[in-house]
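thread: overnight batch results

M.L. [08:02]
morning all. the overnight job finished for the chain we discussed friday. pasting input first so we're all looking at the same thing
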Amino acid sequence: MFTLFDPPASFVGYAAIDPPNLPLPTGAAVVQLGFPSPAEDFQEDSLDLNQLLIRNPLATYIYRATGHSMARAGILDGDLLIVDRSVMPQSGCLVMAVWEGNQPACKILKICERHLELHSANPEFPPIVIDAGTEVEVFVVVSIARQVKRAAVPRATGA
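M.L. [08:03]
and the structure it wrote out:
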Protein backbone atom coordinates (compact mmCIF):
# COMPACT_ATOMS: atom_id res chain seq x y z
CA MET A 1 0.00 0.00 0.00
CA PHE A 2 1.40 3.38 -0.97
CA THR A 3 0.75 6.59 0.93
CA LEU A 4 1.02 9.96 -0.78
CA PHE A 5 3.28 12.33 1.10
CA ASP A 6 1.78 15.46 -0.41
CA PRO A 7 -1.85 16.27 0.26
CA PRO A 8 -3.96 15.45 -2.81
CA ALA A 9 -5.04 18.00 -5.39
CA SER A 10 -8.52 19.34 -4.76
CA PHE A 11 -11.24 19.84 -7.36
CA VAL A 12 -11.94 23.54 -7.96
CA GLY A 13 -14.54 23.34 -10.71
CA TYR A 14 -15.38 22.94 -14.35
CA ALA A 15 -14.19 25.24 -17.08
CA ALA A 16 -16.93 27.53 -18.37
CA ILE A 17 -18.51 26.15 -21.54
CA ASP A 18 -19.14 29.55 -23.13
CA PRO A 19 -17.12 32.04 -21.07
CA PRO A 20 -17.53 35.71 -21.90
CA ASN A 21 -14.77 37.05 -24.10
CA LEU A 22 -12.41 39.01 -21.87
CA PRO A 23 -9.54 40.31 -24.00
CA LEU A 24 -6.64 41.73 -22.04
CA PRO A 25 -4.07 44.03 -23.67
CA THR A 26 -0.63 42.68 -24.42
CA GLY A 27 2.42 44.85 -24.93
CA ALA A 28 4.15 45.22 -28.28
CA ALA A 29 7.57 44.71 -26.70
CA VAL A 30 9.00 41.58 -25.17
CA VAL A 31 9.21 41.95 -21.39
CA GLN A 32 12.76 42.42 -20.20
CA LEU A 33 13.67 41.56 -16.65
CA GLY A 34 15.29 44.95 -16.17
CA PHE A 35 14.29 48.52 -16.92
CA PRO A 36 11.00 49.07 -18.79
CA SER A 37 11.06 49.98 -22.45
CA PRO A 38 9.53 53.27 -23.66
CA ALA A 39 7.80 51.20 -26.40
CA GLU A 40 5.48 49.64 -23.77
CA ASP A 41 2.98 52.44 -24.39
CA PHE A 42 2.26 51.01 -27.85
CA GLN A 43 0.03 47.97 -27.45
CA GLU A 44 -0.16 45.62 -30.38
CA ASP A 45 -2.79 43.01 -29.54
CA SER A 46 -4.94 41.41 -26.87
CA LEU A 47 -5.56 37.90 -25.62
CA ASP A 48 -8.26 36.08 -23.70
CA LEU A 49 -6.98 33.82 -20.90
CA ASN A 50 -9.93 31.45 -21.49
CA GLN A 51 -8.78 30.92 -25.07
CA LEU A 52 -5.15 30.63 -24.02
CA LEU A 53 -5.60 28.14 -21.15
CA ILE A 54 -8.72 26.16 -22.10
CA ARG A 55 -8.73 24.27 -25.38
CA ASN A 56 -11.81 22.06 -24.90
CA PRO A 57 -14.25 23.50 -22.33
CA LEU A 58 -16.54 20.45 -22.36
CA ALA A 59 -13.67 18.18 -21.24
CA THR A 60 -11.80 20.61 -18.98
CA TYR A 61 -11.62 20.55 -15.19
CA ILE A 62 -9.64 22.69 -12.79
CA TYR A 63 -7.82 21.37 -9.72
CA ARG A 64 -5.80 23.19 -7.06
CA ALA A 65 -2.36 21.70 -6.40
CA THR A 66 -1.22 21.11 -2.84
CA GLY A 67 2.19 20.06 -1.60
CA HIS A 68 5.73 20.33 -2.91
CA SER A 69 6.51 17.07 -4.75
CA MET A 70 6.17 18.72 -8.19
CA ALA A 71 8.02 22.00 -7.50
CA ARG A 72 10.94 21.05 -9.76
CA ALA A 73 8.43 20.64 -12.61
CA GLY A 74 7.23 24.18 -11.99
CA ILE A 75 4.06 23.29 -10.06
CA LEU A 76 3.79 25.02 -6.71
CA ASP A 77 1.43 24.66 -3.78
CA GLY A 78 -1.78 26.54 -4.63
CA ASP A 79 -1.37 26.52 -8.43
CA LEU A 80 -4.42 25.85 -10.56
CA LEU A 81 -4.04 22.82 -12.82
CA ILE A 82 -6.12 22.86 -15.99
CA VAL A 83 -6.89 19.24 -16.92
CA ASP A 84 -8.23 18.29 -20.36
CA ARG A 85 -9.84 14.84 -20.33
CA SER A 86 -9.87 14.71 -24.16
CA VAL A 87 -6.06 14.67 -24.50
CA MET A 88 -4.53 11.17 -24.80
CA PRO A 89 -1.95 10.62 -22.02
CA GLN A 90 1.52 9.53 -23.15
CA SER A 91 4.71 8.67 -21.31
CA GLY A 92 6.36 11.85 -20.05
CA CYS A 93 3.10 13.81 -19.81
CA LEU A 94 2.23 15.78 -16.73
CA VAL A 95 -0.98 14.10 -15.55
CA MET A 96 -3.67 14.02 -12.91
CA ALA A 97 -4.25 10.40 -11.84
CA VAL A 98 -6.89 8.73 -9.66
CA TRP A 99 -6.78 5.04 -8.69
CA GLU A 100 -8.25 2.70 -6.07
CA GLY A 101 -10.18 5.43 -4.29
CA ASN A 102 -7.13 7.66 -3.81
CA GLN A 103 -7.49 11.40 -4.14
CA PRO A 104 -6.19 12.91 -7.41
CA ALA A 105 -2.41 13.15 -7.67
CA CYS A 106 -0.44 15.30 -10.10
CA LYS A 107 2.62 13.39 -11.38
CA ILE A 108 4.70 12.65 -14.46
CA LEU A 109 3.43 9.54 -16.26
CA LYS A 110 5.70 6.69 -17.31
CA ILE A 111 4.00 3.93 -19.27
CA CYS A 112 5.78 0.59 -18.85
CA GLU A 113 5.00 -2.75 -20.49
CA ARG A 114 3.14 -4.26 -17.50
CA HIS A 115 2.38 -1.27 -15.28
CA LEU A 116 2.19 2.51 -14.99
CA GLU A 117 4.50 4.65 -12.91
CA LEU A 118 3.70 8.09 -11.55
CA HIS A 119 6.82 10.10 -10.80
CA SER A 120 7.26 13.18 -8.66
CA ALA A 121 9.62 15.93 -9.75
CA ASN A 122 11.40 15.56 -6.42
CA PRO A 123 13.81 12.62 -5.97
CA GLU A 124 12.85 12.35 -2.29
CA PHE A 125 9.43 11.04 -3.36
CA PRO A 126 9.50 7.46 -4.68
CA PRO A 127 7.56 6.64 -7.85
CA ILE A 128 4.07 5.24 -7.47
CA VAL A 129 3.80 1.91 -9.31
CA ILE A 130 0.30 0.99 -10.47
CA ASP A 131 0.08 -2.67 -11.46
CA ALA A 132 -1.74 -3.91 -14.55
CA GLY A 133 -5.37 -4.64 -13.74
CA THR A 134 -5.67 -1.71 -11.33
CA GLU A 135 -8.45 0.65 -12.33
CA VAL A 136 -6.83 4.02 -12.91
CA GLU A 137 -7.96 7.24 -14.58
CA VAL A 138 -5.22 9.41 -16.06
CA PHE A 139 -5.85 12.89 -17.47
CA VAL A 140 -3.35 15.30 -19.02
CA VAL A 141 -2.59 18.63 -17.34
CA VAL A 142 -2.55 21.14 -20.20
CA SER A 143 -2.06 24.45 -18.37
CA ILE A 144 -1.00 25.83 -15.02
CA ALA A 145 -2.23 29.13 -13.62
CA ARG A 146 -0.59 30.90 -10.70
CA GLN A 147 -1.11 34.10 -8.78
CA VAL A 148 1.93 35.95 -7.57
CA LYS A 149 2.04 35.87 -3.79
CA ARG A 150 3.65 38.87 -2.17
CA ALA A 151 4.55 39.75 1.34
CA ALA A 152 2.50 42.59 2.77
CA VAL A 153 3.97 45.82 1.45
CA PRO A 154 2.96 49.13 2.97
CA ARG A 155 1.01 51.27 0.51
CA ALA A 156 2.28 54.66 -0.51
CA THR A 157 0.40 57.46 1.21
CA GLY A 158 -0.95 60.38 -0.77
CA ALA A 159 0.38 63.89 -0.22
